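User: For documentation purposes, I need each entry recorded in a consistent format: the amino acid sequence on its own, followed directly by the corresponding structure tokens. There are two entries in this batch. Please keep commentary to a minimum and don't merge the entries.

Assistant: Recorded as requested. Entry 1:
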Amino acid sequence: MGTPDFSVPALKALHKSGHKVDLVITRPDQPMGRGKIITLSPVKKTAIELGYKVIQPDSMKTKAVEERLSELEPDFFVVVAFGHILPKNILAIPKTAAINIHASLLPKYRGAAPIQWAIINGEKETGVTAMLMDEGMDTGDILLCSKVAIRPDDTSATLHDRLASIGADLLIRTLGDFETDDIHPVSQDHSQATHAPLLKKGDGHIDWSKPAEKLESFIRGVTPWPGAFTFHGDKQLKIFKTKPLPINAEKTPGTVLDGFPDEMRITTGKGVLSILEIQAASGKRLMIKNFLHGYKIPPGTVLS
């Protein structure tokens, strides 16, 4: 059971390992882009390529879904970024276990956006956890976990790809431990839990009153989705890459500083943020020097 790109390496790993995948379950096809073109999920595309049967229920709480899954008499459910909460009666179907692969070191960052929030919050490491599923949101017993360092230049896109690959390997290791009866579930310390709620489009709006270092982490965390942005008057500017500078400037946060013709340095709540890559609403993503040749932002301008 899975839907986005993060789920695909796990499905491919299951296929390559020789485990028998009786059914793939993914979210219904969605309209995408400005043309609202109905689009298959990455998992559905991959499942079709690999020759698997696919179903796409609107809900996992229907009798029809329960009956279909019960008929298969599965040993395991494998859930990776599926997007549905599984009710108790569904979780009870597999003979051995329902396993979830989650992109954080649980109990930290339970929820839909663990990769983004780990970067936004300036974490130095994160990882992937294999766990037994229960009725809660990422609250089940931990089976295995794998840690990974968050690099200084990581965006949520680059970290996503590394964790997806690690998650696929962790899944195969977990199933192997079940086969050798070497499985040792450990309860989560719920008092240490933190949450990673889904990010919405407006959550990429830059708050210049925050310190420059935190803004740099924020911008990496929301790249590529929902994307970091600010406003020059009524024009939206997308910010992709920045560098915090330990400079004190006694100006309103968001002010474009004078004296740097091929740079754009902006005051923050603490320190200055140098913009390295940027894009105007109708333009291309550019290095700041190239951007400023065609788009003028006078010093003293306050971005909002």
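Entry 2:
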Amino acid sequence: MSPQRLRIATRESPLALWQAHYIKAELERLHGGAIAIEILGFTTQGDRLLDRSLAAVGGKGLFVKELEQALLAGAADIAVHSMKDVPMDFPPGLGLAAICAREDPSDALVGGHWRALDALPHGARVGTASLRRRCQLLAHFPHLDVREVRGNVNTRLARLDRGDFDVLILASAGLLRLGFAARIAARIAPELSLPAPGQGALGIECRLEDHRVQELIAPLADPATTTCVRAERAVNRRLQGGCQVPIACYGELDATGQLHLRALVGAVDGSRLLCDAIRGDETQAEALGIQLAEALLARGAGALLAQAR
């Protein structure tokens, strides 16, 4: 019997390709010679528009549009995404089929001379592309010079090395996946930099009507990660936040099945942070996310987000 064919659509950045090859290897491990997998690389609009901030050009949804077009056209069967880059809404006919086990969700301080954020001197140049990171950094450390930096992980590290920045703030997961663990000076506690919804997790998107593909990739879904990420995305969806706004959210499951969910909305300049948390049964993950978002909205989160848009 001929092996089943599966085509993976991915961006062509080093991290995106790592993610696609990881999913390929996992599927081959699960299905052996019964599956033949091809990886198709795409350059997205988000990869091309590096001279402007993500907020100015439409957010992180620009990193998935070309991949989704390939799925809808039947040119690819699945697309692999970093969950923190996945917009809240999908084109008709597409959806998430699996959320995989999470890597370290923390933010990382990258820079050779300092081992903690509170050790950075006045005016230290900190590179980040994230409004979420920016607002938290400036709220806790207003003396820092937080600057925009775009491009893939390798490009940002190269800019750090040539002296454009004193330190960078990057996702720990991306650095670990690319073999850059040694570049991590410190992993930042969530009390100082609460992660983005879905940070550290991979998601697999496919056509909703393609049950053959859904059956092939179903074993990759991780129940605990799925619960936490769905709760985090429920917060973001209720706040109408999208992917490139100063919203943070992170869920953790304990051994008893209780979900602890924290969320934050901030002013871009760090002048105000709204933080809240909720705890409840994991079976109510999305409802807990909505409830937490409502609590933030009641405290003025909507006005802060309107200023950021």
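Summary note for entry 2:
Confidence is low (pLDDT under 50) at residues 48-60.
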